[in-house]
Amino acid sequence: MERGKMAELESLETAAEHERILREIESTDTACIGPTLRSVYDGEEHGRFMEKLEARIRNHDREIEKMCNFHYQGFVDSITELLKVRGEAQKLKNQVTDTNRKLQNEGKELIIAMEELKQCRLQQRNISATVDKLTLCLPVLEMYSKLREQMKSKRHYPALKTLEHLEHTYLPQVSHYRFCKIMVDNIPKLREEIKEVSMSDLKDFLESIRKHSDKIGETAMKQAQQQRNLDNIVSQHPRISGGKKSKKEVCASSDLEVKNTSPMSEQDSGILDVEDEDEDEEVPGAQDLVDFSPVYRCLHIYSVLGARETFENYYRKQRRKQARLVLQPPSNMHETLDGYRKYFNQIVGFFVVEDHILHTTQGLVNRAYIDELWEMALSKTIAALRTHSSYCSDPSLVLDLKNLIVLFADTLQGYGFPVNQLFDMLLEIQDQYSETLLKKWSGVFRNILDSDNYSPIPVTNEEVYKKIVGQFPFQDAELEKQPFPKKFPFSEFVPKVYNQIKEFIYACLKFSEDLHLSSTEVDDMIRKSTNLLLTRTLSNCLQNVIKRKNVGLTELVQIIINTTHLEKSCKFLEEFITNITNVLPETVHTTKLYGTTTFKDARHAAEEEIYTNLNQKIDQFLQLADYDWMAMEPGSKASDYLVDLIGFLRSTFAVFTHLPGDVDVHSTMSGKVAQTACMSACKHLSTSLMQLLLEAEVRQLTLGALQQFNLDVEECEQFARSGPVPGFQGDTLQLAFIDLRQLLDLFIQWDWSTYLADYGQPTCKYLRVNPTTALILLEKMRDTSRKNNVFAQFRKNERDKQKLIDTVAKQLRSLINSHHS
Q: Which of 630, 747, 633 shows the shortest CA–CA distance to 699?
């Protein structure tokens, strides 16, 4: 049962499944029936399924047949009507074909006309499009042509503007054309070409200003000179000073034009070789000498191209190189003023151009860059001037150089450059100028002293007298009362030297002009230089004259008189300096003139030279002395050489009556110098005679020789007593021979007992006799006594005398030993 039920259930399920598959086949597209049929063949009941499928097909056939039978009559009627329509359609077709043939025949001409119209419309449209495109392209081509014309005519900045318009306004409208692409490709090349050409113009500009710097600087310095002259005129005429322009306005104005003024003052001659010009003639400015437009154009072009910084760096680099070239002085610059002038002109020209660029461009150069260049220029210029000015030995050239430096400094100061260091350097050059002046005046003084006749100046009339008094401050009431002809006490070199000292002061004053120094500083500078002139230059010249081999006593006497008068004139030199500097001598820190000391030293040197010459003459006479130290008897008179020596001294001291007694009053008699010279000569003569008596070569001497020597000393004493030079009191001059006199009296009188007994006492008769000297002379006489009395030694008197000499010699040695102990 159960098996029957299960089989029945399976049969029902299979039937249901087959039914489902059949429905699916009926409702499914034939393209997708494969999987459904696969499920049938996968199972075991396909036989049954085929049976069911066959049954279903038969079912559907019966339904189709039923439906066809129901609609058959309608179908037949439709076929009949369709056959009737086919005949009518054929007729309609024939009519349409005829109509079409007729229409085609009639429309051929129209088609031809329409084709022609079509072509005309096409051409018209093309022409219109072409005109429109050409309307767009022509401005581009015109701008490009304009660009080329501007490039050709070297109008690079307008060309750059045209290029900008072409690139940003016109070309974008026609960018799809091939020629526009070519233009676009050429635009960078055109920009580079403009940059290169403008840079070439800049290089030409830099070369131009390098060549014209000299002329620009000369023009600027000429303007500064004219402005200085104008300022001087205005300062002298204050009432016309209204409306005066400042130096900055005159020198740095855009046109840089100033009317020429009167010729330069004398002290500025040689600074600028400027010919006299009409007052209405204008001096050309920097822009008249150099065309600045290339640098402006190049700056604008590089600014537009976005390369302004590159341009600025290039310009500044090139100008720095030019600055270094300009600041390199020529090796022979120190030889002439023109060398310095050209050097300064180039420097001024360089900075005038830079100042012009600074004020006419926006940022191409700035103040910091200018200041840096100026610092470099200032240091190099000062170093060059220090080096080259040290070669200058001509004070006129140094003075002209100073004036040129002042003008150089004033010119640049007018453009706002600090120039204090230049004025500080001028103070250094002032020392060198003083040295060159001292060298020049050394030659002047030498010429004056060499050409002087060292004789009082004779005057024959009032005119000559006043002329000399006008040259030298001399007043002497006694001399004025004397009738003509008469003589000044001094020689010609006194007024000449005095005037040359004043000329030296004037020369020093010239250097101090325009240095912006105070009166006190000028006064101090002049006094220091004048002191150097007096204490070094003039003093050396006087010393050289005094020390010359061929100078005579007369010349030395005149030099003493001359230096006395020059010493008195120093107060007038003080007044002279005070008058030209307006600084009173009583002012604190005022330097005093050392002229008094200079002339005193020269006078003392002349006096010493007189004493030295006299002593040398005395020595020359003493070389002629020829004593017979072994003579037994003296002569009847003094030696010839000594008589001649005394005669020379008498004639010499007669000359000294012209010497001054003191600094203030001239005395024709007892001059202090004459007294000193006479005393010095007598002392030197006394000392020389003593040395002659005691010299080692004289080993022996006799009493007769000593008596002859005594005659010569008496001759000297007689000369001293005769008063060869007035002014000695009593027997002062004789005291020069007191040592010789006491020594000779001791030996000739043989007064040893008195000498030995009174030795060391203030009242001793032979106080000036030294035991050592006496012993030396006694030894020489003892040797002579021994030699001459060898066979007479047995005589009692001779033996006693020899014993006495030995005793005296022993006592003298005892005195000498006790004195040393």
A: 630
